[in-house]
Design goal:
Length: 89
């Protein structure tokens, strides 16, 4: 069995998502924190690369797109909240 770069991207992506969730459960990360969101986004991108260049699975791809969008939304929301907090008198 040979592994290609996109296989490794997929494995790394899965590891990032699972590690982020584990660290969230251990209270080492906050669910609204930037690191947690970035780990999820990068993990989703890794899995999407694996699906795009390797064996494609539409349902798994749709889930990763959703994961990417939700993580992006979380980052944008966090930025807006930090700006609002700084602007308060």
């Amino acid at each position: 069995m040979s592994f290609f770069w996109y296989d490794w991207a997929g494995y790394l992506g899965v590891a990032l998502v699972l590690l982020a969730f584990f660290l969230l459960q251990e209270r080492k990360l906050q669910g609204s924190g930037l690191v947690y969101q970035l780990m999820n986004i990068l993990g989703a991108i890794g899995v999407m690369l694996s699906l795009g260049f390797g064996s494609f699975n539409l349902s798994a791809f749709i889930m990763q797109v959703a994961w990417l969008l939700i993580g992006s939304y979380g980052i944008v929301r966090g930025i807006k909240r930090r700006r609002e907090t700084r602007e308060l008198p």
